[in-house]
Amino acid sequence: MRTYDIEKREEIEEVIRACKTCYLAMSVDDKPYVLPMNFAFEGDTVILHSAQEGRMWESILKNPNVCINWTLGEELAWQNVQVGCSYRVKSKSVVLEGTVEFIDDFDEKYRCLELLMKQYSDREFKFGTPAVKNVGIFKVHISALGAREFGAKAITPWNS
């Protein structure tokens, strides 16, 4: 079983859109912190939302550089059932590095909330003014993006 880079942007986006959760990593004062988050993906940005207070919010105010991970798949596979080192979890993983931009404009926050809900439902939603004003919305602008497939079968002329 091999690990392969996923190089086509369309395949990377397929992995991201198939996931329900991303993991947002940040660091302040050399202390790492990671949280599972709901998300929306649009072009070269990831849209996230939260309360406008707390450890995460304070962390990204101090250091807007973040990393996001999506992982799809949890199937256990092995080459030899007797050999522990031959076991792998078959999965695809995307890692993104980027910089946070906080969104304050009401109309843009509303649009971002619509995009967030489209990630999880085909229904259309409406959001009240207090809900939009009180939610924290931020975009992560991509500076680096990479993806890999783990535990894939080796491609050889006889099995391709």
Folded structure, characterized:
- With 160 residues, the chain is an alpha+beta fold.
- The protein has one domain (2-151): Pnp Oxidase, Chain A.
- 24% of the residues lie in helices and 47% in strands.
- It contains 4 helices and 8 strands, in the order E-H-E-E-E-E-H-E-E-H-H-E.
- It has helices at 9-18, 55-62, 106-120, 129-134, and strands spanning 2-5, 22-28, 31-37, 40-42, 45-50, 65-78, 87-103, 136-152.
- Strands 1, 2, 3, 4, 5, 6, 7 and 8 form an 8-stranded antiparallel beta sheet that branches.
- Strand 2 (22-28) and strand 3 (31-37) form a beta hairpin.
- The radius of gyration is 19 Å and the shape is globular.
- The two termini are 14 Å apart.
- The mean pLDDT is 88.
- Pfam families: Pyridox_ox_2 (PF12900).
- It comes from Maribellus luteus.
Query: What is the beta-strand fraction?
Result: over 45%
**Uncertain residue segments:** none
CATH superfamily: Electron Transport, Fmn-binding Protein, Chain A
Give the total of domains. 1
**Rg result:** 19 Å
According to DSSP, the number of beta strands is 8
Named at the architecture level, the CATH assignment is Roll
Please give the share of residues in helix.
10-25%
CATH class: Mainly Beta
